[in-house]
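Winged helix DNA-binding domain-containing protein
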Amino acid sequence: MTILTRRSLNRATLERQLLLRRADMPALNVIERLVGLQAQDPDPPYIGLWTRIEAFRLDDLTRLLYQRKVVRATLFRGTQHLVTAEDYLWLRSLLQPMLDRWQKGAFGRFTAGLDLTELAAAVRTALGQDTLTRPELGRALTERWPGRDPVALARSAQGLLPVVHPPPDGTWGRRGTTPFTLADRWLGRPLVDAPSAHGLILRYLASFGPATVKDIQAWSGITRLREVVEPLRPQLRVFRNEAGGELFDLPEAPRPDPDVPAPVRFLAALDNVVLGHADRSRMMTDGQRRHTIVEAAMTVDGFVHGLWSIKRHKSTATLVVRLFDPLPRGDEAAVIEEGSRLLRFAAAEADNHDIRFTPVDDTL
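Tokens:
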């Protein structure tokens, strides 16, 4: 059985994630290809698309949200994602068992003793044909269950039934009280019955493979997928990683030469390319991993080499690049060039741009 090295897995993932070269592709197609974008905060999905699409503009995504072609909702791993409307219609029901567990784990102690079916029905009644903010929904539910935590009741709704968060929530620079509305009302269509997870697994492998069963589970939040993957084995290629783990992949999926050059990339915070595997060694070291779950990463030669953030002071926006190790000879110019592009995109309003390098404080 062929063994795929860490570097081979890195290049295969970067190719499928559109991180070896920017694509001339509509944003909607990229979101579909990636099976969604992590969207805990409003700005990272824009960065994630900018780093993958040639000539991407802010309005390319904002327009899709207002056109209801893309929605923001609680999905994979019980976290906020942007997905295409077409994918949401089948994904939501497929992920329902996982979201039931998420609600119980996150808010079970606040909803103990409540009939969750009754709670879901009360949410649907409260929303009706309206859009309510999270505080408004919480207040409506505490009228029915006085003394309960309104935040926990409202947030439970994200797991108990299909709700989405319509714009301007989720658009560039817009943070505030999260609006809730019923998904079928917003999209004008009912959800479809949950299909087999086979389709989701194949979509994942196309975007993140080659991968282990544990990788698929870590990305999706769905457990016990071994028994779902096994029937697919005859139509998949099987490899081994350097630790001996079994990797599954689509037969015709691209697996570039491990020496293919990988450009510098500034990834979005919590980009799924750094979260989408249980074993993240194809992108980073174990020491770097704990940083990338809270901070945006920068890659050099395809691997995490630093963290980045943009600091604003008066009329100047400074890109602060915190390095795990000194940059290899010749790479500083590439980092500055790509960093300057990032500033022109993400801090276009600033009169002055600057880039500053500093080491990562790894004593945290």
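Residues 37 and 360 are 27 Å apart (CA to CA).
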